[in-house]
């Protein structure tokens, strides 16, 4: 299943959502490619999607979830790839 959280992350003068699959990276890549999300939007385990794409992604079948639900689904599927901890 493709999941998308609400656009809430500010960056580059826009708000961003996260789009991910709870099944496989291949499913996420296929959905993104089919719906105009560029490959450069991939970030370890999800796509960063600008807010103006949100409604189109939901209309295309992405399931709206909270950010916490998206992360929990990635963890449950063994697909979560968190950023490496910084060494200070």
Q: Low-confidence parts, pLDDT < 50 over ≥5 residues?
A: none
**Could you tell me the radius of gyration in angstroms?**
12 Å
Kindly state the number of beta strands: 6
Question: Helix content range of the residues, please?
Answer: 25-40%
Order of helices and strands: EEEHEEHEH
What class do helices, strands and sheet pairing give? Answer: alpha+beta
Mean pLDDT: 94
Oligomer type: single chain
Alpha plus pi helix count: 3
Strand content: 25-35%
Please report the distance between the alpha carbons of the first and last residues: 38 Å
Shape: globular
Largest sheet, if any?
Answer: 6 strands, mixed
Which secondary structure elements does this structure contain, and how are they paired or packed?
Blueprint: E1 2-4, E2 9-11, E3 14-21, H1 25-34, E4 42-43, E5 46-50, H2 54-59, E6 63-64, H3 67-76
Parallel strand pairs: 1-6
Antiparallel strand pairs: 1-3, 2-3, 3-5, 4-5
